[in-house]
Backbone:
């Protein structure tokens, strides 16, 4: 729990400038301290020292005598049965986070795709009964974020069993958000020239990935769990090179039938991931997994050396067939050069389109 001291709030009757969640917490504390015989002045000091906010003695008196109560005030309660909450639970299992401090309880999503933050803003608004989506803001590192303050929502999603319950209750919504945050689509060219492909989700919570895999199987999508890397290994992230603090696991979907099923049943909210999934489905259903599929992939995607985890980026314009074949030859020559640098023996390759 953070110990950062927030700025003091204004003293107003009923403490109405204090967020509702925090106001309820203070109300319960005031009642408890008063019943224990603590004076109004000392209650003021306790609240200011513990929460960094000031409440007038008249406000404390209103609460103690039952003239005002935040428990009776109308406010947006979260709908814990809403289907959108399963999406929020999947988001939390991915790139979401919970923060609890003296300012209150917060649920936050920080992502590189503005579209995903906007989806979260709309679905959080549905869960919280708001007419308008929450604001989407931008961080200094270029990521977008959306945040909601809610005692009941945070307390509910802080319980692991509740998160898994939402996975079981609405698996499509949960899995879509989870893969949007922690997953993606892969397409690559092997040294043999054949096409490599798949869907993936990466997370340090092996139990969660196992539960996701089980629900995917019920939807007709078969995945397998792998150890991605051990704790202590240096890994490339979107922010650079970092040392993994925990073991990390990957849930991978490799067979064509399962990928087609995932595309039909789940899909992505992030446009670039959904577009890549559509391209993958087209290549697999039209050209299979041979060299011709590799050519078709290169028509759409360009390999960028040393760009982090995602090395195949969509081209602005598709290549013609002849140019794509030339690109494939160049890509395989780079493979051969790397192999030669590690092995003094001769290495050659041939390619037939």
Residues:
């Amino acid at each position: 729990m953070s110990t950062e001291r927030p700025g003091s709030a204004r003293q107003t009757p009923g403490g109405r400038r204090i967020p509702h969640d925090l106001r309820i917490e203070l109300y319960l504390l005031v009642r408890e301290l008063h019943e224990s015989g603590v004076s109004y002045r000392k209650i003021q000091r306790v609240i200011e020292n513990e929460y960094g906010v000031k409440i007038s003695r008249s406000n404390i008196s209103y609460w103690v005598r039952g003239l005002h109560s935040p428990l009776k005030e109308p406010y947006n309660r979260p709908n814990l049965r809403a289907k959108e909450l399963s999406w929020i639970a999947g988001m939390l299992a991915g790139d979401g986070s919970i923060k609890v401090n003296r300012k209150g309880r917060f649920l936050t999503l920080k992502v590189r795709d503005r579209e995903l933050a906007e989806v979260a803003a709309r679905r959080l608004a549905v869960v919280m009964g708001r007419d308008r989506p929450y604001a989407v803001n931008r961080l200094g590192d270029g990521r977008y974020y959306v945040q909601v303050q809610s005692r009941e929502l945070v307390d509910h999603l802080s319980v692991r069993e509740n998160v898994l319950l939402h996975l079981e209750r609405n698996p499509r919504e949960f899995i879509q958000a989870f893969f949007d945050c922690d997953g993606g689509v892969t397409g690559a060219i092997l040294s043999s020239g054949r096409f490599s492909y798949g869907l993936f989700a990466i997370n340090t919570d092996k139990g969660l990935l196992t539960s996701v895999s089980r629900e995917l199987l019920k939807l007709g999508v078969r995945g397998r769990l792998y150890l991605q890397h051990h704790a202590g290994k240096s890994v490339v992230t979107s922010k650079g090179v970092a040392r993994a603090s925990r073991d990390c696991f990957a849930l991978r979907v490799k067979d064509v039938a399962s990928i087609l099923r995932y595309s039909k049943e789940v899909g992505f909210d992030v446009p670039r991931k959904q577009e890549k999934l559509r391209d993958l489905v087209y290549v697999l259903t039209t050209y299979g997994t041979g060299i011709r599929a590799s050519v078709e992939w290169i028509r759409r995607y360009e390999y960028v050396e040393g760009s982090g985890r995602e090395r195949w980026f969509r081209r602005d314009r598709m290549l013609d067939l002849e140019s794509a074949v030339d690109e494939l030859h160049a890509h395989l020559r780079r493979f051969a050069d790397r192999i030669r640098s590690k092995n003094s023996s001769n290495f050659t390759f041939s390619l037939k389109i």
Observations:
- The chain is about 45% helix and 20% strand.
